[in-house]
Write a structure and sequence with these properties.
The chain is 49% helix and 7% strand. By secondary structure, the chain is mainly alpha-helical. Among the domains are: 37 residues; 43 residues, no CATH class. A two-stranded antiparallel sheet has the order 1-2. Strand 1 and strand 2 form a beta hairpin. Helix 4 packs across helix 5. It starts with a strand and ends in a 17-residue tail after the last helix.
């Protein structure tokens, strides 16, 4: 009898690594191959290592939940708070901090920490 595990919508045999096919542009493939060559490993191993590296440093916005600040935002809020006039009303202080942290609306498309708007 073979044990099967579910990962997302894919079934994977227990004790075996899954084999996945991905589409990559020629440019990205060339960059991965160059990285693999510099590290003296094959393309498959390079892709695995790069994905693991990316997942280890990517902000996990889903686990923070909507509206919860990241560590970087917390540091920025603390610094901005030190610079603001202490005589400002608390709601005005919060408005100014929020405006500075969120940045101009025209840059929201480029923010990687915000969910993408579906059009």
């Amino acid at each position: 009898m073979t044990d099967f595990g579910k990962t997302g919508s894919h079934t994977v045999r227990a004790g075996r690594d899954a084999i996945s096919a991905v589409k990559l542009s020629q440019k990205l493939t060339a960059e991965i191959d160059a990285w693999a060559e510099a590290h003296q490993i094959g393309r498959s191993e390079a892709i695995r290592q790069l994905v693991e590296l990316g997942l280890s440093v990517a902000p996990d916005a889903a686990s923070r939940g909507p509206g919860l600040p990241s560590k970087i935002e917390e540091l920025a809020i603390r610094q901005i708070s030190l610079l603001l006039d202490p005589s400002l009303a608390s709601d005005e202080r919060e408005r100014r901090i929020r405006r500075l942290i969120q940045g101009p609306a025209e840059f929201s498309e480029q923010r990687i920490d915000l969910p993408r708007q579906r059009t």
